[in-house]
Design brief:
Order of helices and strands: HHEEEEEEEEEEEEEHEEEEEHEEEEHE
Largest sheet: 8 strands, antiparallel, barrel
Number of strands: 23
CATH architecture of the largest domain: Beta Barrel
Number of domains: 2
Distance between the termini: 26 Å
CATH topology of the largest domain: Lipocalin
Radius of gyration: 22 Å
Structural class: alpha+beta
């Protein structure tokens, strides 16, 4: 567990960006995609009527330099917007007015087998004209799934199958127009990191970068953000242990020892109640060294360890400073949905 804790923390603190991600960020920025786009910028995101709901397609570059794409649309039942995030891996300018993007959808959205699913890598080509763009083609990398072909939407003959032949619509894909940055658009971006595996959710003060690593024990997903003197991390790691509650104490010790001369100031065993009513064993802790003050919580959920940590690196922290309050707000935002 010590090696895993070191790997997690090192990845979070370095927040290293791959050359490919940097190149993709530069490409979408140069192409003019960064910003908020919509079929109808005059319709607020949370507004729904008989013609549909307000929506925004947002392209951005995270503080770590990773390019991201997100689609936000109003939800008729609750009035709350729904967000689907896409990690952009590659972006290539293939013509003066066209860009090819390879991305992976984070959250599951639909169950129809012929539609895009979370984790699938898709290749999308956008064609741009001034402050407008539309989707020219969209397909899974292996070509087995298609949603747009040569500027026209396509669909299968039967909705419960992935076909070999697709039916092309008679109308071209609609144009997205660039919208101004509004408070309403910003409010829709809640910066919540979630996990389908364990149901945890934690709210970041800014959009975090996301790093996924495959280890011998299983997948490790790390969310990291830095804002001023504060650093925020939420990670989920699979373990070879069937019950990770036995590793809570060693996980905290390993994490704190990753910082030179850091010591644990306090530690307490607690339980966290999930929305289902299930009690999850956990440990809260604080730690310091001459340069940092940190607070965190580690929660055991079956084979997974969820670690949420925030640190103040200002070197002269005070108990009620904004940095300390931001740390407490972040750690206490952890929920299991």
């Amino acid at each position: 567990m010590r090696k895993l804790g070191w790997a997690l923390l090192s990845a979070c603190l370095l927040a290293a960006q791959a050359a490919g991600a940097a190149s993709a960020a530069e490409t979408i920025t140069a192409f003019g995609l960064v910003g908020s786009w919509s079929f109808d910028c005059s319709k607020p995101i949370a507004t729904c009527d008989k013609n549909g709901c307000g929506s925004r397609m947002i392209f951005e570059v995270s503080p770590s330099g990773r390019p991201l794409n997100r689609f936000v649309v109003g939800a008729t039942a609750s009035g709350q917007s729904r967000t689907t995030d896409y990690d952009i891996h590659v972006a290539t300018r293939i013509a003066a007015d066209k860009i090819k993007i390879i991305s992976t959808q984070r959250q599951p959205s639909v169950t129809l087998p012929w539609m895009r699913q979370a984790g699938e890598r898709w290749e999308t080509v956008l064609v741009k004209s001034g402050d407008k763009f539309r989707i020219f083609s969209a397909r899974r990398e292996d070509g087995q799934k298609v949603s747009v072909e040569e500027g026209f939407s396509v669909r299968p003959e039967k909705p419960d199958q992935v076909p070999t032949n697709w039916i092309r619509s008679a109308q071209e894909t609609p144009w997205f127009q660039k919208c101004g940055a509004t408070a309403e658009t910003v409010a829709a971006v809640d910066f919540v990191a979630r996990s389908e595996a364990t149901g945890y959710a934690v709210k970041f003060p800014i959009r975090p970068s996301v790093d996924v690593k495959n280890t011998p024990a299983g997948k490790v997903t790390i969310n990291f953000a830095r804002l001023g003197d504060n650093m925020f991390t939420a990670s989920e790691a699979e373990s070879i242990l069937a019950d990770t509650s036995t590793a809570l104490d060693s996980s905290v010790t390993s994490l704190v020892k990753s910082f030179p001369v850091a010591i644990v100031m306090s530690k307490q065993s607690i339980s966290v109640t999930a929305a289902s009513g299930r009690a999850l064993p956990a440990e809260t802790f604080t730690f310091v060294n001459p340069d940092i003050y940190g607070e965190g919580i580690v929660v055991a959920s079956g084979r997974h360890l969820i670690t949420v940590v925030a640190m103040d690196t200002s070197k002269k922290p005070t108990k009620d400073s904004d940095a300390r309050l931001a740390i407490k707000k972040f750690v206490s935002s952890l929920k299991f949905e």
